[in-house]
Amino acid sequence: MKPPDPERLCIHQVTLLERCDFCRSVDCLARNGVFKTAIWRDMLDAVGLKVAKRALADSGVAAPVFCSAGFLTAADPKTFNKALDDNRRRIEQAAELGAKVVVTLTGGLDPTAPDLDAARARAFDGLAQLLPAARATGVRLALEPLHPMVCGLRSVLSTLGDANDWLDQLDADDTLGLTVDSYALWWDPALKREIARAGKRIQSFHVSDWRPETRDVRLDRGMPGDGLIDNRKIRSWLEMTGFDGLIEVEIFSALDWWRRDPDEVVRTIKARYASFL
Q1: pTM here?
Q2: Angle at 99 between CA 235 and CA 174, to 5 degrees
Q3: β-pair type (101-105, 36-40)
Q4: Which CATH fold topology does 6-276 show?
Q5: Residue 134 in contact with residue 150, Cβ under 8 Å?
Q6: Are 204 and 65 in contact (CB under 8 A)?
Q7: Hey, is 271 helix, strand or coil?
Q8: 147 CB-near residues (< 8 Å, 6+ apart)
Q9: Is 125:92 a contact under the CB 8 Å cutoff?
């Protein structure tokens, strides 16, 4: 299988967390010849929308993806409605920054109301309520299932099959799509089948690697080639559906890559891109 077109490479800002703020991250990417990124909401909040827009314009880096919206599982109605309002603001921010895709998580299980079915129902309802805001801006919400280990913390939706079921029920393919994250889904024996089922719904493809002995359930992702995931095979399954979108490197690595020089990180990604993606 041929390496992907270098123009498809997108490096998420979060991959450079700890050593870079919003502005330094886009400067680092541009300096190393990478001109696509996914905005990380906390890094955006730290500098504000005006500064972020200027930094993107000055660097020449485009931000076609925004991470993340969602987190719609709170049992308290006031907290739930506050989350809806925050999501509408995030959708507007994404549109203003030029992002076409907003990666959307359900949120984890509310510790005050540990009823998993009820949490999923709230997240489903919240997603439905966000459709008008997304449709009005032309932004697409890309629902992202996450690994079962973070069900209690980040996502009560764990499989691409369940995400496909939700999109079937919501019947809003003009506005809703899916995110396939290899780190979250590589273990699923139904993954190839569900990717084929998803087809054109797939809007975002995140890649990293699973270390054989991970040291943290969220913050020890490997660089492609560091671990066990066959990212190239997963890419081939996506491309069988006609997917030719961005290949987005997203690495949460508090114990390794976040500690390294950001230029080294970007150069390593570019080198690994041809061999492992």
Answers
A1: 0.97
A2: 75
A3: unpaired
A4: TIM Barrel (3.20.20)
A5: no
A6: yes
A7: helix
A8: 158, 183, 184, 185, 187, 217
A9: no
220: tokens are: 């020890």
Query: Where exactly are the structural domains of the chain?
Result: 6-276
- R_g of the chain, CA atoms, integer Å: 18
Q: What is the pLDDT along the chain (277 residues), one digit of tens a residue?
A: 889 999 999 999 999 999 999 999 999 999 999 999 999 999 999 999 999 999 999 999 999 999 999 999 999 999 999 999 999 999 999 999 999 999 999 999 999 999 999 999 999 999 999 999 999 999 999 999 999 999 999 999 999 999 999 999 999 999 999 999 999 999 999 999 999 999 999 999 999 999 999 999 899 999 999 999 999 999 999 999 999 999 999 999 999 999 999 999 999 999 999 999 9
Task: Locate 135 and state its tokens.
Answer: 């449709």
CB 176 within 8 A of CB 104: no
Q: How far apart, in whole angstroms, are the C-alpha atoms of residue 7 and residue 117?
A: 41
